[in-house]
Design a protein that fits this description.
The complex is a heterodimer of chains A (195) and B (207). With 195 residues, chain A is an all-alpha fold. Chain A has one domain (45-194): AhpD-like. Helix content of chain A is 68%, strand content 0%. Helices cover 56% and strands 4% of the residues of chain B. A two-stranded antiparallel ribbon of chain B has the order 1-2. Chain B is globular. The relative contact order of chain B is 0.18. Classes of the chains: A mainly alpha (195), B mainly alpha (207). The interface between A and B is large, with 73 and 72 residues.
Chain lengths: 195, 207
């Protein structure tokens, strides 16, 4: 039974990291189950297509400079839609930044507000990937770098671009789960190097 | 695909008094999208909710629109935070979640998990409050500093977590199982914060 996080970190059976992960067996199995339910073998390809799912995983992991995971998702997307992959690769250089930044609700925390890139897809990118996926990429950029700037307007943009409410929930899980997955890989990779 | 006229609209709360400070008080949360109605929940949905009582929560009834994913998310959450077979103590797992939520700016998640940290370590309530008031750079003892800094480094995009964080955690007395728990609890809240922040908003404590 293949496990994507084990594969990306390079965890082999019987190793120290294998034993450590085995102590949290449900977390390990359900991280893999989430990956399968969202990206590898989702049941409902109408609310979000296989190419859209791979594109969101690739975009989030590439924006986060998570090299191993983004290479994996790049492969999945390339197998689904090479034109979308080329368009996303073209958009990445002007979209990558560092986070988290954004604004708090006005008040005592406003002194901690931080400005940063407010990324929006170009007309060229929208033409290449379609309005629906372009809106999801904009939302993924928001949630990747400035999650505290989230708003009902941002969700309305997804609905207006053709996502259903069920689809928005799945897109949100895709983005948020990828942030979990890339950090488990990052943390365990560092730990492995020190053992 | 559907035309531009959208059938579905978000819910807005123009009269809401928005919480604007980190607090250990019990905040509420309201959804911007329509949760699934209780009377429409199927057996598969209840499996995704894991605990039947979660049908009372608008957050979980919204996420149950993707029941397989909600079920896996919830079981992973429970194992990361409540499986006490070795590893990090409960209070420090909640501390890692609170530090992550403080860094991302999720007032709701920070309120829940700072409160849980204080419940698990009642003598540390002021230390928890200092994390909320002063942020991740506020003064803490060596062990809590190591946990908070590791969680914050892993929360940065791109991740700044490195061998120095592992060394600091080991120097503070954490074994490798505990370090895995720091990593997974911070990673999990990078998932949870993004759902809570983007699908709805915090409401003030009940009067």
């Amino acid at each position: 039974m293949s496990d994507l996080i084990d594969d990306l970190v390079g965890i082999v059976p019987g190793s120290a990291l294998d034993d450590l992960r085995a102590k949290r067996p449900v977390a390990r199995a359900d991280a893999q189950a989430t990956y399968e339910g969202l990206i590898a073998s989702p049941a409902d390809l109408e609310r979000a297509t296989a190419a859209e799912r791979a594109a969101i995983g690739y975009w989030v992991s590439a924006l986060s400079q998570a090299d191993g995971l983004s290479a994996h998702y790049r492969g999945l997307l390339g197998a689904q839609d090479e034109a979308v992959l080329a368009a996303i690769d073209g958009a990445l250089p002007t979209a990558v930044t560092t986070g988290p930044y954004g604004a708090f609700p006005a008040g005592p925390l406003s002194v901690e507000d931080e400005d940063g890139l407010d990324w929006a897809p170009t007309a060229e990118l929208r033409a290449a990937v379609g309005d629906r996926l372009a809106a999801a990429l904009a939302h993924a950029h928001l949630l990747t770098f400035r999650p505290r700037d989230s708003s009902p307007d941002a969700l309305q943009s997804l609905l207006d671009a053709g996502w259903t409410t069920d689809g928005v929930v799945t897109v949100s899980q895709l983005i948020a789960f990828t942030h979990f997955q890339l950090r488990v890989v990052a943390g365990l990779t560092v730990l492995k190097e020190t053992i | 695909m559907a035309s531009v006229e959208s059938a579905e609209r978000v819910t807005r709360y123009p009269d809401l008094v928005r919480p604007n400070e980190f607090t250990q008080a019990e905040l509420g949360w309201v959804p911007w999208l329509e949760p699934k109605a209780v009377e429409d929940l199927t057996d598969e949905d209840y499996a995704g909710l894991v605990e039947r009582a979660r049908a009372g929560s608008p957050y979980f009834r919204l996420l149950v629109r993707d029941p397989v994913v909600l079920g896996a998310r919830t079981r992973a959450d429970n194992d990361i935070f409540y499986n006490t077979d070795a590893g990090l103590g409960r209070a420090e797992r909640e501390l890692s979640a609170a530090a992550t939520s403080r860094t991302n700016g999720c007032l709701f998640c920070a309120s829940v998990h700072s409160r849980f940290a204080s419940l698990q370590a009642p003598s540390r309530r002021d230390d928890v409050q200092r994390l909320l008031d002063e942020g991740i750079d506020g003064d803490q003892d060596e062990r809590w500093t190591a946990v908070i800094e590791a969680a914050a480094a892993l929360t940065a995009t791109p991740s700044h977590f490195g061998p120095a964080h592992v060394a600091a955690l080991r120097n503070a007395g954490l074994d490798d199982q505990a370090i895995v728990d720091v990593v997974q609890s911070a990673a999990f809240f990078n998932w949870a914060n993004r759902l809570m922040l983007s699908l709805g908003e915090a409401t003030p404590p009940a009067a």
